Amino acid sequence: MRARTGIRSEVAPENDPAAVELPNEHVVRIGSGQGFWGDWQEAPKLQVRCGTIDYLMLDYLAEITMSIMQKQKERSPDAGYAKDFVSLMVELAADLVDRNVRVVSNAGGVNPSGCRAALGIGLADQPLSRRPRVAVVQGDDLMSSLDALIAEGHELTHMDTGEPLSSVRDRVVSANAYLGSAPIVQALQQDADIVITGRSTDTALTYAPLIHEFSWDQDDWDLIAKGVVAGHINECGCQASGGNSLVEWPTIDLTVPGYPIIEAKSDGSFIVTKHPNLDGRLTWATVTEQLVYEMGNPTEYITPDVVADFSTIELQDLGDDRVLVTGARGRQRTDKLKVSIAYRDGYKAIGSLTYAWPDAYEKAKRANEILRGRLDYIGLVFDEIRTEYIGAGACHGPLLAGPPSSDLPEVTLRIGVRAPDRNAVTRFTREIAPLILAGPPTVTGFADGRPRVQEVVAYWPALIDRQVVEGRITVETLPL
Questions:
Q1: Same domain, residue pair 293 and 355
Q2: pTM of the model
Q3: 359-371: b or e for each residue (b if 16 or more CB lie within 10 Å)?
Q4: How many CB atoms lie within 10 A of CB 301?
């Protein structure tokens, strides 16, 4: 890990932990409560109720999430946001108000105003000591202006293939620019208790509060880069405090995990920690694993607000679930913003059957041959057919050393197809069940019935000139 990122490590002197503590000044504590849509709903409650934090950061969005939310909004104009965020805020509202904890979240998805409206309804009958001020950040959604932008010469070419977006324009379901910290900072300056954004960059949910609290200049590249590092550590929730750890997973109790908390100072240095009464673990290893997560070139971690150099980061493991992070450097932001675009790309279905010993692997392979032969016989054509043998090395693929053992106790045949024609995919789903009687013996795992046909939504990354995207905020006190 060190070779990839240049991250330096030190362990604090055993007898003098204060030697590496941050100077005695104002500390801002930002707790991570969600790392994705579907993360553990108890985590933000524990962050608020088990200790002191100033901000609760909730990250719900991934590239595919935006397209899912857009499809929901197509079915219902009131949908298109993370509904579990609303129920969470309703449950936590009294704690947030009484403890003066402010919330920054991208739960708004493709409908931030709808998210705020639902929150207003949910909080209408809550006996709160004061009514919270809720901000909505908009401007990231480019769907309504997409044709005009293309006509003006913004080709939104695919960052990998170079194709212009016009080649799939008729199939686009969502297009959202990654906004930076500025609108969130403006909302906090207007005393927002809860900030709801759409497609903000994940890291800004953490570093925007730091910019606000410490009055950092938006062009102080080194300070903003330090904030980006804090945001990157926070954005995936428990992954920084022991979850998904390749190094320490056997010895970490994650039953009731403490999600990471950033304790930051005005110079941009910060300690990553967690509430001491919760499970999980914060060490040099767990923090480093998160730092290299989704990392391309570590010297050019590009965000809307700065280009951060992760190779200049220094970590010091202070012990007791406290890791000091210093040293990040930054360069001037780019003149482009990234745009996350999703488009319809046909249909897919995936089915599975499990074969038992003896000769489980051979039976699964024979079932695959039979199924593919029948698909050819009835004339079905697919863009792709993919087969996996779960239990026989499917996770490792070509990295598997030697053929699978012939005495495997069970193997699951997993086969999927993709095609532009929904009818062809639907017909495929009818060909799995006949293998139960017209196929190899000792089969099970068919009680769930036919596989479900799903629409394929593909990802189209692009860049756009910064000046054509403008974040907008509205801040309102929810009605009594």
A1: no
A2: 0.91
A3: bbbebbbbbbebb
A4: 23
